[in-house]
User: Which sequence fits this backbone?
């Protein structure tokens, strides 16, 4: 079955760029039935959708982050990535990647990776 | 942006209880609602899509209903493994948004 795994630095300095990768295994990322999302969750708080990408490269971002976020996809590596620039302590969170089917929902999630923004 | 509210934000219940969580949207979202269950330290688990369709493998004690602006998640007979936080999500329009969550705790 399809599995997702986040990877990237667990500690990022303020004003720098957070970079995470989600590796898809057990299936191809190059599937027009799905798109690929990033979601984050600060400790003890709720879920916040960051953005999504289709295999075509088309993206949508949360307006609250839009000027700082970039999501890209590498179908040859079965991976998609998140870059969030000019980070502050408010970006400290668990970051999840997820597969999304149409307008149904996020049916497969990575386990999440904790990113702390601190000097 | 479409805002989602959930009520209650916290509920205390016993094994075997029937539990209902309500999710309200700030504007109509047809039936583009999903429900998730999250346990501490874990990723959310996909329970229901299209407001009322049970995801494969999810126990039948879970059910969803609603359309437009009001939606409900019902657990017909609460089991020990159901104590968790539940989130609704709207997929009608971008940005996708989640409700603030409902924590179901043991009475």
Assistant:
């Amino acid at each position: 079955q399809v599995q997702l795994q986040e990877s990237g630095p667990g500690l990022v300095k303020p004003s720098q760029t957070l970079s995470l990768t989600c590796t898809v295994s057990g299936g191809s990322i190059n599937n027009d039935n799905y798109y690929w999302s990033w979601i984050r969750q600060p400790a003890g708080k709720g879920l916040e959708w960051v953005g999504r990408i289709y295999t075509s490269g088309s993206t949508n971002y949360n307006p609250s982050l839009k000027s700082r976020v970039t999501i890209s996809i590498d179908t040859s590596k079965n991976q998609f990535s998140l870059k969030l620039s000019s980070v502050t302590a408010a970006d400290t969170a668990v970051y999840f990647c997820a597969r999304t089917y149409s307008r149904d929902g996020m049916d497969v999630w990575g386990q999440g990776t904790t990113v702390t923004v601190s000097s | 942006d479409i805002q989602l509210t959930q009520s209650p934000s916290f509920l205390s219940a016993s094994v075997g209880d029937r539990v209902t969580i309500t999710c309200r949207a700030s504007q109509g979202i047809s039936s583009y609602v999903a429900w998730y269950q999250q346990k501490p330290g874990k990723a959310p688990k996909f329970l229901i899509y299209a407001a009322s369709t049970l995801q494969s493998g999810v126990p039948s004690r879970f059910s969803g209903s609603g359309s437009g602006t009001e939606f409900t998640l019902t657990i017909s007979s609460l089991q020990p493994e159901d104590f968790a936080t539940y989130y609704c999500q709207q997929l009608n329009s971008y940005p996708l948004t989640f409700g603030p969550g409902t924590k179901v705790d043991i009475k």
